[in-house]
Amino acid sequence: DGGITQSPKYLFRKEGQNVTLSCEQNLNHDAMYWYRQDPGQGLRLIYYSQIVNDFQKGDIAEGYSVSREKKESFPLTVTSAQKNPTAFYLCASSYDGQVSYGYTFGSGTRLTVV
Amino acid sequence: QKEVEQNSGPLSVPEGAIASLNCTYSDRGSQSFFWYRQYSGKSPELIMSIYSNGDKEDGRFTAQLNKASQYVSLLIRDSQPSDSATYLCAVYTGGFKTIFGAGTRLFVKA
């Protein structure tokens, strides 16, 4: 079945540590996105990518980095510069770059700072 | 700043009733409108999309759009306990920009 796979499901980060969240899709979607969800808030866009080897900052990119070396993969690195990383991270993809058909989301990664 | 507003709830309805969820948005240039359902601890799932004024029905779900009033709603008929979830309204404003509301929690009492 086609879909988006995020791993790990739960991740614990120590202070000053970089961690990488994996996102893989087999939907043949061109566009991929990373969102962050905090309790009581709407989803906030971290980064997005329209095509391979190209990505753009979203509203809250500081402290995060991404790469898009393959169409299927869009990993997110949470760096030590992100001071409040505890959140639910969602990877999404869309068929067309204009997002007019809505998103397919992965199952999410819950990141906790310990 | 472009915004999408939803009542956080919880909205509580008895089983079999109609649940009405509402959303307002600030950007008049918005092009596409979506409703996502999110169960606790899970990721959002797209359940409805609407692009033009009027109603769009899909099974027990009806989405309503009024661009003049900048208002979009979701009706759930014959509500079931399995409909208990948070419903996110999302608005595509163009240029890879989709804005999500914070969601309305729905509780359907058996």
Explain what the structure shows.
The complex is a heterodimer of chains A (114) and B (110). With 114 residues, chain A is an all-beta fold. Chain A has no helices and eleven strands. In chain A, strands 2, 4, 5, 6, 9, 10 and 11 form a seven-stranded mixed β-sheet that branches. In chain A, a hairpin with a 6-residue loop joins strand 4 and strand 5. Chain A is globular and about 35 Å long. The termini of chain A are far apart. The mean pLDDT of chain A is 92. Chain B has 110 residues and is mainly β. Chain B is built from no helices and eleven strands. In chain B, strands 2, 4, 5, 9, 10 and 11 form a six-stranded mixed β-sheet that branches. In chain B, strands 1-3-8-7-6 form a five-stranded antiparallel β-sheet, with no helix packed on it. In chain B, strand 7 and strand 8 form a beta hairpin. The chains are: A mainly beta (114), B mainly beta (110).
Tally of DSSP β-strands of chain A:
11
Order of helices and strands of chain B: EEEEEEEEEEE
Number of strands of chain B: 11
Distance between the termini of chain B: 40 Å
Largest sheet of chain A: 7 strands, mixed
Oligomer: heterodimer
Summarize the amount of helix of chain B as a percent range.
under 10%
The secondary structure category of chain B is mainly beta
The helix content of chain A, as a percent range, equals under 10%
Kindly name the structural category of chain A.
mainly beta
How many H/I helices of chain A? 0
Return residue spans of chain B where pLDDT drops below 50 for at least 5 consecutive residues: none
What form of chain B results from the Cα inertia axes?
globular
- How much of the sequence lies in strands of chain A comes to 35-45%
Strand content of chain B: over 45%
Largest interface: A-B, 23 and 25 residues
> How large is the radius of gyration of chain A?
13 Å
